[in-house]
């Protein structure tokens, strides 16, 4: 295997091709008789009220922010986890301190009431 | 006999030879053989997917005391083929005001994200697509494309229900990625490598389930949330928001979401098997025949078993409320996963190269689980007492 990422790239291509083919066959075989009522947005069988792109709760945004902090920081932990057995004990404690700082951020968000669904 | 010991690489070498002897350049021959191999591999995945639909429908029927599909073919095994024909000849409806490009891309991405995971799945030694040295990061990254596709579908549909489903996805799938990554970190730590083949290889003596049962539980729960299956099927909750993010999808596009979800479950069943239960190993039975095909069959059997476990949970547990779901993740699962990571790192490092490594890790996990349960018990008792006290004071105030 010369370059494993070449294989992954080809896999992406084929992975895109198969569903595209499925949808294309469906588009060819299926009937095409559009009309206004059929294409209208579904909302319990009545006409839609107001704008369909509604405003969303800011809460979702805050959770996404907390997630982002964690997700970026866990990327730093992977190299540490891979080479743990070769590291001195000191480095293990350093990693643990890093995780504790991470958790301190979570506790801060918790105490600030960011994790409450209001 | 040589062929059966390593069928994939034997075929690869012979094809490479015949291609390059015809005057083809090395890179082009490689790309062509890869393409043929990937096409066969993906076709296998899709055929398996068809049977997964049948298994799913049969099993849910048994859980709900019904018979399930039993008309077409023996035990209704040809039912999914009839379903496919039906989905293909349905009209493809795009709602007015939808973002057409995103609307059509979403089901494609949904299927692709699942298929991508198959690239690193090590079925048996010498029988896998590719061994990436960053396998676990790749698993998380490819899984994120699935989340993205759900958000795309919800946003592009121009439908309130779909949008609500997409919002819930942001809160759920994205949140449960954190404990999943932490559980993957524990496995990485134990194996000393991120590659899937290396992780299976590291479980030669004892599978990681015995080293870290808690990580297995955390991974199972967060995998179910990541899949969006019940009890975490908030993004498509049928009784609340019609069908969630795929409300407006018809025909094959809906079929791709549905098939993608089932294949995703199976794939995660496979990942549970490879991360915690030794991949193709089964109590020495894998040495019965000296061919990786036998190992691959054992692996698929294990994956189907864990697929069944995920289904079992799906049809047993009712849907969780959105605030409970978030509190469960951020206030329980995430702290627990990171504490487990610290404990595993410390115990694993202290008992490195000692005979006590396995018992020490197992006991530390059990101890942590016991402490968690005790803490939750005392916390619940305190909450209950607080509630009763406030109720009592309310009745006292009423009497006066």
What can you see in these coordinates?
The complex is a heterodimer of chains A (118) and B (400). Chain A is mostly helical and 118 residues long. Chain A has one domain (4-111): Methane Monooxygenase Hydroxylase, Chain G, domain 1, CATH 1.20.58. Chain A has helices at 4-29, 36-39, 58-82, 89-111. The model of chain A has no long low-confidence stretch (mean pLDDT 81). By secondary structure, chain B is mainly alpha-helical. Chain B has helices at 2-5, 7-21, 26-63, 79-88, 100-117, 135-156, 160-172, 177-191, 196-202, 208-211, 213-227, 238-241, 251-276, 292-314, 322-350, 357-399, and strands at 122-124, 127-128. In chain B, strands 1-2 form a two-stranded antiparallel ribbon. Classes of the chains: A mainly alpha (118), B mainly alpha (400). At the A-B interface, helix 1, helix 2, helix 3 and helix 4 of A face helix 3, helix 5, helix 6, helix 7 and helix 8 of B.
Structural class of chain B: mainly alpha
Coarse morphology of chain A: flat
The dominant shape of chain B is globular
**Percent strand of chain B:** under 5%
The CATH class label of chain A is Mainly Alpha
Count the helices of chain A. How many? 4
From the N-terminal CA to the C-terminal CA of chain A, the straight-line distance is: 53 Å
Query: How many domains of chain B, as an integer?
Result: 1
Q: Can you tell me the number of structural domains of chain A? A: 1
The CATH architecture designation of chain A is: Up-down Bundle
The number of E-state strands of chain B comes to: 2
Contiguous low-pLDDT stretches of chain A (5 residues minimum) are none
Radius of gyration of chain B, Cα only, in angstroms?
24 Å
Oligomer: heterodimer
**CA-CA gap between termini of chain B:** 92 Å
Largest sheet report of chain A: none
